[in-house]
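Quick one before lunch.
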Amino acid sequence: MFDKFHDECGVFAVYGHPEAANLTYLGLYALQHRGQESAGIASSDGRDVICYKNMGHVADVFTPERIGHMRGSMAIGHTRYSTSGDKAVLNAQPFSVACNKGKIAVAHNGNITNANELRNDLEAAGSIFQATSDTEVILHLIARSREQQIEAALREALLQLEGAYSLVFVSENKVIVARDPYGFRPLAMGTVELTGRKFGYVFASETCAFDLIGATYLRDVEPGEMVIVSSEGLHRMQFTPPRKRAHCVFEHVYFSRPDSLVFGRPVQQSREEMGRQLAREFPVDADLVVPVPDSGVTAAIGYAAESGIPYRQALIRNHYVGRTFIEPSQAIRDFGVKLKLNPVRNLLEGKRVVLVDDSIVRGTTSRKIVRMVRQAGAREVHMRISCPPTISPCYYGVDTPNKSELIAANNSVEEIRRYVEADTLAFLSLEKLQAAVGDNDDRFCYACYTGEYPTQLVQIQQRLPLEPSRL
Ligand code: AMP
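Model of the adenosine monophosphate complex:
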């Protein structure tokens, strides 16, 4: 099957601000929820591109001294999450190289589905790779292009890619961003004020990064669009015609922050509407609506508002669970979900509870939470999930496990209910999810709920009976 690099990421870029690296640091700080494993910034002062990246949270990777060394008015940044087996600093981004087109650095959110094919061809032609990430392939394609101008070489490279990409580049004197023709992953564009009438340009996965730095959202980078900012101003190029749009619906279900505009729509509005729709589709006689924090909060508010059942925060999350936590080697083993969540017994005792969460993937978390709520005295636990059952893996940049590990791919809703030990269980229907995200012209990708993938290579691969390891 395809290599899935599970690159759940946040990207950021700025052009024309004297404190570009600092702004990027703040932007990444606001995008930290999109990836907690590694962080990196590349900046340019017009002559040199310097890059620093390491494992860890943005605030741990960068010190004031480190940022102080990153001069210049152009910068890009990246924050990345990856699953086990791929936790090398080698795969941290941005990737930075010096090639025949000059010095360039790139950061990527998404997943290139034909990366292995391209990589095999490049290796056969003599390219040497340092990492296993699909993003490096893009740099090799740019370096190999016969085009002299970087944007022309980039266009040539992008036309060879299939899959999901929101990309930010910095060269010695330009910032370039591009988005795949389907628009799978978000990429917003804005301006940041300088003194007088001057302003700089900023780009980010989510608009919550703009809010922190006082930037103004202008619009999204369009699918199939490349935006180039240099001393000549801002230029745009439609490097390929847009395809039928396929914005990732999971950005609205789970991944993005509710205070962001994603695909031009407030995530909060979508999520609250998911909760309201869920209450209409699957009402239940209960005493409390309780969210699984933080992912279920906004939908639970919608469920409570629509049903009239009181909303109570009866599960408290410890926000400070980090990598430095030392697990005792014996005695109290397997903390599981207890490390993160603790029930409020006096709210739950004797109560019939509607427990709202965003999704069930493997089912193991839900099972632990239902048990926890019951042990805290709840009389009934009714689980409500604000999206349909996840039946198919994502090849476009969301970390979902293989089909064999997706509980809904292999079990009915009733079987899942029994596994998670809930009194009742219901998932929002696809139709109501579509309504909740305001999708009246079919511009979202729902492949994780339908198994219908919008890109060709994945479609072909899905139809093959055997699991080939060629790709
Ligand atoms: P489980 O059913 O045990 O696999 O856990 C599902 C929970 O993990 C959901 O309620 C989400 O809050 C969270 N989740 C779902 N998808 C992802 C993802 N791609 N990355 C990180 N967390 C996720």
